[in-house]
Amino acid sequence: xxxxxxxxxxxxxxxxxxxxxxxxxxxxxxxxxxxxxxxxxxxxxxxxxxxxxxxxxxxxxxxxxxxxxxxxxxxxxxxxxxxxxxxxxxxxxxxxxxxxxxxxxxxxxxxxxxxxxxxxxxxxxxxxxxxxxxxxxxxxxxxxxxxxxxxxxxxxxxxxxxxxxxxxxxxxxxxxxxxxxxxxxxxxxxxxxxxxxxxxxxxxxxxxxxxxxxxxxxxxxxxxxxxxxxxxxxxxxxxxxxxxxxxxxxxxxxxxxxxxxxxxxxxxxxxxxxxxxxxxx
Length: 281
Prior knowledge:
It contains four helices and 20 strands. It has helices at residues 2-17, 133-136, 218-222, 250-254, and strands at residues 20-31, 34-35, 42-45, 50-68, 73-75, 77-78, 85-86, 89-93, 111-117, 122-129, 153-155, 159-160, 163-169, 176-179, 182-187, 191-196, 200-204, 213-217, 240-241, 273-276.
């Protein structure tokens, strides 16, 4: 009798574990209709249909969930791997350090891996682009991976670059998109606070986690700006958007994530992400 009582908790634990399923969310970076790749040129970008060479394309995502047919949101238990995934935060790294892409590293990651309960039909996916506030003001030099990625940390107060998309047009060496929290203040001792978190909450419908891909179209971020325009050094001091106050390119470049600039009000539906049924096949 005593032996049965000892075994019972273990059997219950095994039954719970057997109810989970492993899932992999697959992201497919593109520039318009073409797959994103370092070392290639892409034409037809922005308002002047310019040709650009990619320099970098990376982003952080967290708060990943699947959505049941009933509308219930089920959090994905993201698997820590000491490289790309840590405590629910995932770095998607689409560059490979070749060609002109020299700001990142050779490693790439196109996936979010985790587990969900193996019950019910999942018909949608949700995630947030950015770094959660609790992690956003760590020291990038000493933080655990993937928070130690080269080129994705601004400062103690500014925190991390949630998205980094850099390209090179013919007219200038770089055109930037560095999205992070803005108007931040504070200290290491007292903590930091930012006026605008700029966290983009994404929801995609009609998503089959076993078969579909999540397309990430870099051309959407650049479609309403002139990437060839050289800053005048006065009203506009940097080419592109670094989410600094008053940056003239930022409204158009944040809108594809559904974000308003220097406001918490949404800017309409996002267009950066979409579902590709059945993946690349």
